[in-house]
Recover the amino acids of this structure.
C-alpha cells in the first residue's frame, strides 16, 4: 500500500470543547504524520462549496452554521492507506451509531455535531487540500 495523504477538519464544537490535542493524538498514535496544520474560521461561501453535495438536504443550513460558528483546525495527514485509516478512527457519520473507541463514538452525541470531517477518497482529499490550503 502506497503512502497517501488525507485531509481533516476538526470542527468548531471540538475546538470549543478543547479536544484538539486529544483528536490529533489519536491520528499520531496510529502512525499517521501531520504534514500541514492550520487554524482558521471557515467562510460561509467555502463551507457551502465543501458540503455542496448536501445543499438540497433539510439539515444543510444547520450544517453550514455548525461549520462556520467558530475556529476550526485544518490538517493534512499522511500514511499508508491514510484516507481509509482516518475514516476508521473517526467512525460512522451519526455519533449515535458510531462505535465506542472512534472519535465520534467517544466524544459526540448527535448530528450534525460529529467533531471531525475526513475526506472520503484520495481525489477528494487533494481537492479539499487545494480548497483549504491553496
Ligand atoms: N442526517 C443528518 N442530519 C444532520 N447533519 C448531518 C446529517 N447527515 C450528515 N450530516 C452532517 O453533514 C456532514 C457531511 O455528511 P457526510 O454524508 O459527508 O458524512 P461523513 O463523510 O461521515 O462526514 P464528513 O464529510 O463531515 O467527514 C456530517 O459530518 C454531518 O456533520
Ligand atoms: Mg463526507
Amino acid at each position: 500500500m502506497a503512502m497517501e495523504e488525507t485531509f481533516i477538519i476538526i470542527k468548531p464544537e471540538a475546538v470549543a470543547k478543547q479536544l484538539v490535542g486529544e483528536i490529533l493524538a489519536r491520528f499520531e498514535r496510529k502512525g499517521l504524520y501531520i504534514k500541514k496544520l492550520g487554524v482558521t474560521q471557515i467562510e460561509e461561501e467555502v463551507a457551502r462549496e465543501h458540503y455542496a453535495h448536501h445543499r438540497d438536504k433539510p439539515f444543510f443550513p444547520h450544517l453550514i452554521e455548525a461549520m462556520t460558528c467558530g475556529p476550526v483546525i485544518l490538517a493534512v495527514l499522511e500514511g499508508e492507506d491514510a484516507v481509509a485509516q482516518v475514516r476508521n478512527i473517526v467512525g460512522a457519520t451519526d455519533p449515535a451509531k458510531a462505535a465506542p473507541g472512534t472519535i465520534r463514538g467517544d466524544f459526540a452525541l448527535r448530528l450534525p455535531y460529529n467533531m471531525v470531517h475526513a475526506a472520503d477518497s484520495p481525489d477528494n482529499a487533494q481537492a479539499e487540500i487545494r480548497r483549504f490550503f491553496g
